[in-house]
Write a structure and sequence with these properties.
Elements (H helix, E strand, L loop, with lengths): L1 E7 L7 H12 L4 E6 L9 H7 L3 H12 L2 E5 L9 H10 L6 H4 L4 E7 L7 H14 L2 E2 L5 E3 L15 H22 L1
Parallel strand pairs: 1-2, 1-3, 3-4, 4-5, 4-6
């Protein structure tokens, strides 16, 4: 069984990225377990808070889920042609303390996906993640990229994926990433 953690980078209740992640869990297939996480409860990073109180409970819980996974899928929105601040903030918290980076991120397979109402998907946001993930030492899967453009037409009012072409693409993407992760595990 391949254990994947999917993290949605949006806090919005009707988030297309969270909906995409839930759909990914549905189409993952046999031998793949996809744990879906959001960023709710993670405060803005504050080194004084960290020094005084340590890691917040929400950060520790997400960090534990990340460490328990075989691979991580970041499902990122794109705000103003870049990484959403709330998502980068969460990764900054997860990288604390700095000497824990190799255990949490080092060599762990990561993949990027995203949904956007715009016509270009999340291509710029995904590109902006590259130097961050390189700095953390992740093993970024280059076997695929998922850009769900015009997401308002891909999901119904309840956040259910209704586009069959995207459903097939998503299944191939998740299964391809899981295959990569399984191969890395040996």
């Amino acid at each position: 069984m391949v254990q994947l953690l999917g993290i949605s980078g949006s806090l919005r209740a009707g988030s297309f990225n969270t909906a995409l992640l839930r759909a990914a869990r549905q189409v993952a297939g046999d031998g793949i377990e996809l744990d879906v996480a959001t960023l709710h409860g993670i405060p803005l990073y504050d080194a004084d808070l960290e020094a005084r109180d340590g890691l917040p409970v929400a950060v520790s819980a997400l960090k534990d889920r990340l460490v328990a996974s075989d691979g991580v899928l970041l499902v990122t929105p794109e705000y103003n042609n870049g990484i959403p601040g709330v998502f980068k903030n969460a990764i900054d918290w997860l990288s604390r303390p700095a000497d824990d980076i190799p255990r949490v991120f080092g060599g762990r397979p990561f993949a990027l996906a995203g949904a956007s109402p715009g016509g270009f998907g999340t291509i710029l946001s995904q590109a902006h993640w590259l130097p961050v993930l390189k700095t953390l030492g992740v093993d970024l899967w280059a076997g695929g990229r998922l850009l769900a453009s015009r997401s308002g037409s891909l999901f119904d009012a309840d956040g259910m994926l209704v586009d069959e072409k995207l459903r097939a693409q998503l299944a191939g993407f998740v299964q391809g990433f899981a295959g990569y992760v399984a191969g890395k595990r040996g």
